[in-house]
Amino acid sequence: MSKLRSFFDITSYGIYKHWDEHEKALPKIKTFTTDIPAELDIEFGFIINCKKAKGKKLTYCIYHPDIPDDKGNIMPPFEGEVYVDNNDWDFYLGDTIWPPLENKVGDWRMVIELDGKILAEKTFSVLLEHGDGEIQFWKRRGY
């Protein structure tokens, strides 16, 4: 008898439309990118699709730049776990930027693991100055 093998794949990453974690629907992608402008409440991260993995426990972690808490202590990475709900399941791992913007700049590494093995990871660079992308360039030039 063969063992069923699970599959995990990042289906989208970048900037998303606003997401409410209490909603069943996942956020919709706005822009595929790993460069994130430092703007209040911008939503960024990635969606992973899990196939043939129902019931498996995934752990996730968001390593952010050295962001101080209200007392000036560096905040630990944000960690959690989630169980795969069915055999074709999507999971969103993401974050937003909150004030002040200046201490959110830097690399934010997001990781999803299963039994200590990395299944998916992305590093997003939060930037205070974000250059125009190709779309804005062509719109501005009138092409």
TrEMBL record:
Pfam family for this entry, one: DUF3859
Domain DUF3859: 6-126
Protein name: DUF3859 domain-containing protein
Organism: Paraglaciecola mesophila
Lineage, highest ranks first: Bacteria, Pseudomonadati, Pseudomonadota, Gammaproteobacteria, Alteromonadales
